[in-house]
Amino acid sequence: MWLFAAPDGLRDNVVVFHQITCTKALKDWESKEGNPPLTEATVVRIYGGVPYEDGGKVKRAFITKLDNGLNGLKECVCVALPAKPMLR
Question: What is the pTM of this model?
Fold first, then answer.
């Protein structure tokens, strides 16, 4: 989990980013109804984060580091991923 504080350092302005791997995010995208298998997908958009439930509330997890999960996209011509919390 990553914590980012506002420039003024106020406690109520802290944003929490939950981490998820690129492979896990792609598997979650593939499992959603209406999405094709990763090997056949031509467009993959995950730029809003991956929703998950935590204590009955829906939160979002963001990809923080790219891994070999992108290698499974054989036919893909467009990949949209969240870039803000991603490490290089």
Answer: 0.69
